[in-house]
Structures are given as C-alpha cells and as structure tokens.
Amino acid sequence: MDAGWMEEPIVLNVPFPKRSAIPGIKPFEAGTFYRCSLIAILCKRISAADGHHVHYDPYELYWQPDLRKAPMCVFGELYTLPEFIHIHQELQRNLLLNLDVVCCIMWLA
Question: CA nearest 104: which of 56, 66, 46, 70?
C-alpha cells in the first residue's frame, strides 16, 4: 500500500458444532482491513503544519459587535470549547511535577 497504509486480513474463528461434518473452530477470512499507524498520522500532521492549522493551546474566543455590550464567547472550533480548555488545563496541572515533558491534546479532523 502507499502513504503508510497497510493491509491485514480479517480472520474470524467460527465454531462448528460437534455433530457437523467438520467440527471445531475453523478460521474464516472475512475480508481485508486497511490501517495506518496513528503515530505516523500524527507525525505527518504536525510536521506538515504551517502554523495556521495546528493549535497547541486552546483559547477562549470572544466576539463584541457592539462596544456597549459585553463580549460573547464564540465556539467555532473544538479547541475553543470550555470542555476542551478544562481537559487541557487538567493535563498541564498533572504535568507540573515533570517539567521536561511537553504534552498537548491533539484532535484530527
């Protein structure tokens, strides 16, 4: 396969009853499974990034069309959601003991 994709046969062990012509468990090839290493996908995505499509830190995005009113929080991307920001902050808090490691949460679309 090309671009890092690999082929693997899908083999299912099918049990046959004792009274059948061929009793016991027999392998059945159900097709082909195509897979790619998740690490390879992540490395390709990060190394090919031009800086506009990779966000290492989530942030809150606000919109204020009228200066007389309070700004509104805008949720346009996953990394601007409060849940994503909370998970990122929890990860960073847990890593404070080991300052040699940089960790981030990566989402692939």
Answer: 56
State the Cα–Cα distance between residues 6 and 44, nearest whole angstrom: 16
Residue 52 Cα distances to 17, 48, 49, 56, 100, angstroms: 59, 11, 7, 11, 26
Maximum alpha-carbon separation in the chain: 83
Q: Which ranges of the chain does DSSP label H, i.e. alpha helix?
A: 38-47, 82-94
75 or 105, higher pLDDT: 75
Tell me the per-residue pLDDT of 53-100, one tens digit each, with 9 for 90 and over: 667 778 888 999 999 999 998 887 777 888 888 888 888 887 766 666
Q: Give the C-alpha separation, 25 to 28, whole Å.
A: 10
- pTM of the entire structure? 0.48
The gap from C-alpha 87 to its chain's centroid, in whole angstroms, comes to 14
Amino acid at 28: F
Tokens of 103: 């960790």
pLDDT value of residue 79: 78
